[in-house]
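Look over this one:
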Amino acid sequence: MSQQPPVALEARKITKRFAGVVALRDVDLRLYAGKVNAIVGENGAGKSTLMNILSGVYADYEGELLVGGGAPRHFASTTEACRAGIAMIHQELNLVGGLSVAENIFLGREPLTALGLIDYPRMRREAAEVLRRLRFAESPDARVGALRVGQQQLVEIAKALARNARILIMDEPTSSLAEGEVAVLFDVIRALTARGVAIGYITHKMGELAQLADYVTVLRDGCLVHAAPARELSADELVRLMVGRDPADFFARGDHPAGPRVLEAEGITLRDPARPGRRLLDGVSLHAAAGEVLGLYGLMGAGRTELLETLFGLHPAEATGALRLGGSPARLGSPAQAIAHGVALVPEDRKGDGLVLGMSIAQNTTLAALGAALRGGLISPRRERGVADEWRARLGIKSHSARQPAASLSGGNQQKVVL
């Protein structure tokens, strides 16, 4: 029997509430040094919430943390967690678009000269070294806002690597990366664990678990369900633990005839407004029938997001092509026109484009369909809450009231509000 590795970070009886809703209840977790410790579960299971507690993002929680087997700790900020050797790579980017890559990597902890000024040559040099490990092609002086999403994700990863943390938490770090970038990241992870770094790794991708995970912790509905070495759990067993039922119950597939075509797009072309003469989309055609799920595949930067945004009318000045909805010609003129034709868009950036975080669940739910909440030409709070309460129940949005601000919800529940 192999000896268990040392525990780098232990969480005991962690409970976290958001405005009266219990997001985590008495959860225990161990991250082992030199190992990839996967944390899995459905959206809303509490994974990101738990990681935010470990990294000091959330300070108001019950329970205790022990770093390296020492005395119990309670981090009041990310700065305190960083001092304890903990860094986190967030799924949602926390970058300043107007600053350079190097400035983002060292934001808040810039190297200083003897005169107390920022040592830019040293900052560029050290940033270049971290970026080299990630095989990042752009200059440390490149403006982050001009990078594509996958490159920005690598900058987010570089921020954490530059801290030389002993405990590194990764929240779905491959969600925006191309295949080659994922392979590089996996090489970096293996090099880190070889140096004794403990990795806490959140993912929904079973293939990543098979390649990386040494230990797996399963959360469901904010509770710890199971924790074991990864080799002891099959993919089907993991899915069963995550969702609470047998995979055969929801992976059953049956044939059904497709209905009439409801979406037909021909020759969709999108000019790049930032670079004259370049096209983000070039003559794309597709169609989808009633009852079908049409999948769009491609690497980051291939134009998947731009295509859906164009069909939704978000780029009328740069887009050309023909569109038919329900058999009738339609214009790529505006989101309002798309909505009028029964088209909805769930955007890539949940917080930036999908929600107004300071508004309530009810206000966000009806924001793109105010007609459902109107009475006498004015918004009826009662109708608004009624619509929101119906969808809170249908989608299982964990919240105590439709009046609750969207910002107070977990990431998975925010996504349900977008839906």
